[in-house]
Amino acid sequence: MSDHKLLSAMLRPFFRKGNSARFSLPDCLGEDSRVLCIDAGGLSDMLFHMPLLTAMRRRYPGIGMDFLMPEQHAALVVPSGLARQCLIYKPGQLNPWRPSFASLLKQVGAGHYDVAFVMAHEPQPALEMVALASGAALRYGPSHGGAWPSINFELRPDADSYLGDRLRHAAPFFGFAVADLKTKWPLPLDKVRQMAQQVHFHKPNARQMLVGIGPGRTLTGEPASIESYQAVARTLGSRLECRVIPLGDPQDQEQLARLEVLLANVPSGLSRDTLLEVVLLLAQCDLFVGGNTDLFHFAVAMGVPAIGLFTDADEPRWRPTGRAQVRLLELDDAGRIDPDVLLAAVDAVAGDRRRAASTAVAPSASPAAPANVPTAAPGKPAASASDAAAQ
Question: Model's pTM, two decimal places?
Fold first, then answer.
């Protein structure tokens, strides 16, 4: 017997209920439905599915929504108010030959789920098997040749469309209009207020723009160099009245720290130790500049004026087009951006904010210490706040 057949025979009992279940649309969702949201590890993928999940919560307040996720994302999901419970898995548990995988299937199967979402745009064989083992009649996930029978509601890929817009095509099947999909990540209002106060305390001059710079790992290709982001910060600091702060996944702490020591106007005292704090701070920014990173896509979803520093490696599916508050700029072969092009993009996405709360500084001003901007020594990483997306 081949390894594949042996594995299928061993795991068949876990899949019996899912294989026999039937569903109809949009009747599969209701006030008493149980939904399993499976986080495959991509933060942007989870963000792109959030509009549909928050729409479900608004329409069906009593819906039971559980998340199966890696531990590092719990700090962001738990405070969202969406999850009834969060089940944590470790990478080693996704090996189908390990006893821990069978234990995971058994645990999920006891949840009596009606719908399962595999929140990914690329195939996830092990997690798709988990969706099947959940017993859910409707199992949504990425479309690929081996998706069936684990996935029975596939969203066909479109290489030319932004991944953040894909759920617009699926929403009508679940009974939602496109207008029902709110892209902002749901943030707890008490944390929003606290972080807004902290930002005001550490940046009391309301005339200064707060600019986030994201030098973190990119989702495709190589990230721009630290020197490239330093040059961007210098351009902004020399031409705008602003404070600049490095922002990114706390796991990229080394990269963020390398940039921070090169900047002279970073507001100190703001914590960025968790994903929640980072997203809260991002939502307070007047502008975000970064590559094709998770945080860039969060800025786009949350309506923060954003400038993407992209390269040829960033495919159309990663490019949010047709948005007034987003501009994508191409880095040249040396990883540089023309300063005038950058400033024109800032004017396009954040012009109103720039004119209302920021004064242009003479180009001759020192890049390291912009005119009218007090110099601050680098401090602790930063935290901030944003509107509650689910409201």
Answer: 0.88
